[in-house]
Amino acid sequence: MTPFTVRTLERADIDALLAFETENREWFQSHIDARDPAFYSVQGVGEHVQAYLSDFAVGAWHPFVIEDANAHIVGRANLKNINSPLGCAEVGYRIGQRFCGQGLATLAVRQLIQTAQRRWHLTQLVAHVYRHNVGSSKVLDRCGFLVDPQSWADETQKECRFSLSI
Ligand SMILES: CC(C)(COP(=O)(O)OP(=O)(O)OC[C@H]1O[C@@H](n2cnc3c(N)ncnc32)[C@H](O)[C@@H]1OP(=O)(O)O)[C@@H](O)C(=O)NCCC(=O)NCCS
C-alpha cells in the first residue's frame, strides 16, 4: 500500500504549506510561473489558503495536499475553475523535488479525476503544460489525457493544452 495520502487542504495546513513551498521555491520556479514574493510568509500563505477554501466552499475549486506517512506535505494538486454548468475544470499539481519520480503526481491526478467524477459530476478536464515539461506531459498521458494537436503543432505557444473526457 502506498504510504502517501491525497486529502483536501485544511486551514491547519498553513505552516506546513509554507515550509513545503519555501523548500521547493526554486524547483517550482524552474518549471512553472513564480509566485509573488509576498506569498512566502505566514500571512501570504494564510491568505492563499483562505482564498482556496472560500472557493472550495462555493464549488469553484478543490484543493488537495499529498502527505507522506509522517503527515508531511510532499505535494499539492488542485481541481481549478470548476464550472459545474459546463461540467469542466482544470487540473494542476506540483510535487516536492525530493519526492519526484515515485508516481506521486500520477497518484494525485488519478485522485483528481475520481473526485471530479464522483463529487463534482464533471465530464471534462483540461490541463495546460509548458511544452518543455516532459514529466508533466508524461503524467497526463499516463492518466488518459490527450494533447490538443493544434496547441502541440504551434511552437510559438509556450503551453500545450491537454484534455480528458470522463
Ligand atoms: C511534473 C511533476 C509534477 C511530476 O511529478 P512526479 O511525482 O515526479 O510524477 P510521476 O512520478 O507520477 O511521473 C513522472 C514521469 O515523468 C518522468 N520524467 C520526469 N521528468 C522527466 C524528463 N525531464 N524527461 C523524461 N521523463 C521525465 C518520470 O521518470 C516519470 O516517468 P516514469 O514513472 O515512467 O519513470 C513534478 O516534476 C513537479 O512538480 N514539477 C514542478 C511543478 C510542475 O511542473 N507542475 C506541473 C505543471 S503543469
Instruction: Give the CATH level 1 class.
Output: Alpha Beta
- Largest sheet at a glance? 7 strands, mixed
Biggest sheet, strands in spatial order? 1-2-3-4-5-7-6
- Count of separate structural domains: 1
Helix share, percent: 25-40%
According to CATH, the homologous superfamily is Gcn5-related N-acetyltransferase (GNAT)
Poorly predicted runs:
none
Tags for this model:
166 residues; binds coenzyme A; single chain; Aminopeptidase; 27% strand; alpha+beta
Structure, described:
By secondary structure, the protein is α+β, with helices and mostly antiparallel strands. It has one domain (5-165): Aminopeptidase, CATH 3.40.630. Helix content is 36%, strand content 27%. It has helices at 14-23, 25-29, 42-57, 104-118, 134-142, 149-153; strands at 5-8, 62-67, 73-83, 88-95, 124-130, 146-147, 159-165. It has a seven-stranded mixed sheet, sandwiched between helices. Strand 3 and strand 4 (88-95) form a beta hairpin. Helix 1 packs across helix 3 (42-57). The model has no long low-confidence stretch (mean pLDDT 97). The structure holds coenzyme A (COA). Coenzyme A (COA) binds at residues 28, 31-32, 93-95, 100-106, 129, 133-136, 138-139.
